[in-house]
Amino acid sequence: RPRQNYRRCQKRAPNVRFLPLGTGFILWDAADEFVYCNGYFREIHAEHAHLLIPGYKLEDYIREISPSFVETTVSDVDDEGGEALSFLARVKSGRDSGEDFDYCLGNGRWFRVRRQRLEDGSLIALHTDITDRKRVEALKDEFLALASHELRTPLTSIMGAVGLVKSGSFGAIDPEVEGILGIAYRNCERLSHLVTNILDLSKIEAGEMDIEMEPVDVMGLVAEAIELNTVFAEALGRAIMVSNTLPGTIVLGDSKRLGQVLTNLLSNAAKFSKKDGRIEISVTRIDDRIRIGVRDYGIGIPPHFRENIFERFSQVEQVDNTGEPGTGLGLSIAKDIVELHGGVINYESQLGVGTNFYFELPEYSD
């Protein structure tokens, strides 16, 4: 019987012959009845091995091993009527989008599930052990959070001390010394920005970033962002201006976090603009959404880099005009913040002409 089931499995999924170590394989037919699973799957689900018999229904299996998961909506994609379907309902209806998801067994082992409907309606699922990966990720997050917190306090003290000396609070200083202090202060600012980004990244990945939603005046948000970033832009020979306004426009969001998004976009625009160039902020309405754009007239972004631009630690190969390397975190964090607000972020670019980064949020009305 096992050999017969194996042959049936190979007919339905001919490409699934050699599985990575630590991977369980299970096959359900078009009627969602159990057909076959490998020995490793039986091992990791030993307590439910009595359910892995020919003809046993997928629905009954899921209800037995995880009743709560029957109603869990794994996919973010709604059906045609706009109703969010549960995982089981999606699988049964054939509308399961098949995205991976992770689960943890009672013994602490983590598995990632990858599944797919075959042409004949059969459903295959691979359960891969990712326990070590989860452990490493947890250690990494813990280290980053700890290191960032430990760095922030002495860094703030150093910046304060250097700033006081640089401002002349302790008497006049030699111009050469002032220049050295300026370099030290700017590098402290860069390090402070990096620490903040790492902390934000840790919060986002842990699902702990606090978003306080309230009505936000868009033009007020833009004005504040310009005020906070003008000194940085002018130091690089750039001017920030507003090219289009929508007075009285309101969105629902966290003004601090949305200001962080604008700051990241303005910072990038200042770095990559041409010397003595301008940076334009525009606010426009696209259907029922408000688009806030930041345009530079700089080097542009190569087309092949589009799929990587919002990834962690991702940087365009070309060196920016400041000569200072970035961290590759700003755009990634901006994307996460915008999506936490139910918005989207994207860009348009032309090499040698410039780039327009923009994000859209639903317009808010009482």
Characterization of this structure:
With 366 residues, the chain is an alpha+beta fold. Helix content is 40%, strand content 21%. The protein has a five-stranded antiparallel β-sheet with strand order 2-1-5-4-3. The chain has a five-stranded mixed β-sheet with strand order 7-9-10-12-11. A two-stranded antiparallel sheet has the order 6-8. β1 (23-28) and β2 (34-37) form a beta hairpin. Mean pLDDT is 81; it is low at 75-82.
Short key terms for the protein model shown above:
single chain; 366 residues; alpha+beta; five-stranded antiparallel beta sheet; five-stranded mixed beta sheet; 9 helices; 12 strands; elongated
Question: What does this entry show, briefly?
Answer:
With 366 residues, this protein is an alpha+beta fold.
Identify the strand order in the major beta sheet. Answer: 2-1-5-4-3
User: What's the rounded overall pLDDT mean?
Assistant: 81
SSE string, helices as H and strands as E: HEEHHHEEEHHEHEEHEEHEE
Poorly predicted ranges (pLDDT <50, ≥5 residues)? 75-82
Q: What structural category arises from helix and sheet content?
A: alpha+beta
Write the layout of secondary structure elements.
Layout: H1 2-12, E1 23-28, E2 34-37, H2 39-44, H3 58-65, H4 87-93, E3 101-104, E4 110-117, E5 123-129, H5 131-166, H6 175-205, E6 214-217, H7 218-235, E7 239-244, E8 250-253, H8 255-272, E9 278-286, E10 289-296, H9 330-340, E11 344-350, E12 354-362
Parallel strand pairs: 7-9
Antiparallel strand pairs: 1-2, 1-5, 3-4, 4-5, 6-8, 9-10, 10-12, 11-12
Helix pairs in contact: 5-6, 6-9, 7-8, 8-9
